[in-house]
């Protein structure tokens, strides 16, 4: 079996426009670990608590996917950002996400995230990013993203976005200094 997944998303409605909840996405597989640097055959893809309201957006705390670039990897084969560990990369921290309705034809997705520590694994290939190199760890990472989306007709939309990421790397690797 390639992988087994367990997903749970309980929510409690507080009033007409707000709720609290939790999200857990757990995976496992038979045989070898998913990547050579995974410590076991079982791992959390995400696990966080959340608060959402119509006015504020969504606040999350826990093991959260980094929202740098595209949220998805466009199919089974994937894309370079997935294999380089930039998307579907869950780290420990806080996240704020909000979709602003500017007018009937324009929405703007905004994301601000701060991560205290990396989640120790992602989809990246071995030695393609800091999480996949023994002795390197990410910390104090800030991610900002804005993506406007225009509705052109009933059948088409145009979206454009910009993302920024800055963080620190702690190194226990000889000859590789701590860096930002």
Tell me what you see in this structure:
The chain has one helix at residues 80-83; strands at 4-8, 11-15, 18-28, 42-53, 57-65, 90-103, 106-118, 136-153, 156-159, 162-171. The N and C termini lie far apart (39 Å). The protein has one helix and ten strands. The mean pLDDT is 88. The protein is mostly beta strands. The chain is 2% helix and 56% strand.
Structure at a glance:
The chain has 180 residues and is an all-beta fold. It has one helix at 80-83, and strands at 4-8, 11-15, 18-28, 42-53, 57-65, 90-103, 106-118, 136-153, 156-159, 162-171.
Give me the Rg, rounded.
18 Å
Distinct helical segment count: 1
Question: Based on DSSP secondary structure assignment, what is the total number of beta strands?
Answer: 10
**β-sheet strand percentage:** over 45%
Spans of at least 5 consecutive residues whose pLDDT stays below 50 are none
Helix content: under 10%
Class based on secondary structure composition and strand pairing = mainly beta
What distinguishing features does this structure have?
mainly beta
Secondary-structure map:
Layout: E1 4-8, E2 11-15, E3 18-28, E4 42-53, E5 57-65, H1 80-83, E6 90-103, E7 106-118, E8 136-153, E9 156-159, E10 162-171
Antiparallel strand pairs: 1-3, 2-3, 3-4, 4-5, 5-6, 6-7, 7-8, 8-9, 8-10
């Amino acid at each position: 079996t390639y992988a087994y997944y367990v997903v749970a998303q309980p929510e409690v409605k507080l009033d007409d426009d707000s709720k609290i909840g939790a999200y857990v996405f757990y995976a496992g597989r038979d045989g070898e670990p998913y990547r050579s640097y995974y410590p076991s055959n079982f791992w959390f893809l995400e696990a966080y608590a959340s608060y959402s309201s119509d006015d504020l957006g969504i606040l999350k705390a826990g093991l959260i996917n980094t929202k740098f670039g595209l949220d998805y990897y466009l199919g089974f084969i994937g894309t370079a950002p997935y294999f380089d560990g930039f998307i579907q990369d869950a780290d420990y921290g806080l996240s704020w996400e909000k979709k602003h309705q500017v007018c009937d034809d324009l929405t703007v997705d905004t994301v601000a995230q701060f991560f205290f520590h990396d989640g120790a694994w992602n989809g990246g290939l071995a030695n393609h990013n800091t999480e996949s190199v023994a002795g390197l760890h990410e910390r104090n990472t800030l991610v900002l993203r804005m993506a406007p989306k225009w509705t052109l007709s009933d059948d088409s939309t145009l979206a454009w976005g910009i993302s920024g990421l800055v963080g620190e790397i702690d190194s226990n690797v000889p000859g590789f200094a701590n860096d930002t």
